[in-house]
Amino acid sequence: MYVVPASIPTHHVQFPTVPFVTISVLFAILITLPLGKLLEWILPNYRISVLGHSVSLNPGPFNIKEHTLVGIMANVVVAGTSITDVASAMHIVYGIKWSFGKTFLLGLPIQIIGFSFAGVLRQFLVWPSNMIWPGVLVRCALLNAMHSNYGKKDTKHISREQFFYLACLCSFVWYWVPGYLWTGLSVFNWVCWIAPNNVVVNNLFGTISGLGMGLFTFDWVAISAIGSPLVIPVGLVVMPITIRNTNHKMS
Asked: Measuring CA to CA, which of 62, 104, 171, 197 is 20 to 30 A from 234?
């Protein structure tokens, strides 16, 4: 129930027009906690029988395990599936429209093949601590912050939950500064401001027509355009930028 609404905008903007709306996994994780607590409160404690097994509509308090499972499911669908690209290309380019059943049966093995390989190779890809991707640690920290002290008050120091909400509020307020009040902070190319008509300076320090040397930005949207530097290792962030600049100069 949580995952289906998150996948709708992604598949709706398969061929997007600007501006368009997408829902990230972070948003799905954040909105799941109040919805889970709401269902925990309103669902009746009633048991039904399914294939000979008794299942309760309200199995108990919404816990971190259920929250993690929702995050995993959202991570699978929120970025879209490759089979939707293939089906769309077949329909637009070749005029062949696949049925829902065919698309579903082709997409299901593609979605679960990663989990299958992870299960088979769990001794090498899951259990070793050095195989953990940094992005997973961020989501684990978020889930622990949301569940560890939920409903509790810390008298000695600020809780992780309160710190997270405070950081979200500060980021929301700061976004309006480079995004609306002074857009020059997004591309703070101060060298070109000093000599805007100098060809050499613009070739070296220009953002669009130059090498972009000495470029600063105070916009977190621009900083995290290719991935958050707080999550992704520095080498993986610098390499795409270098390749992109090289290809731009060659073209």
From this structure: 171
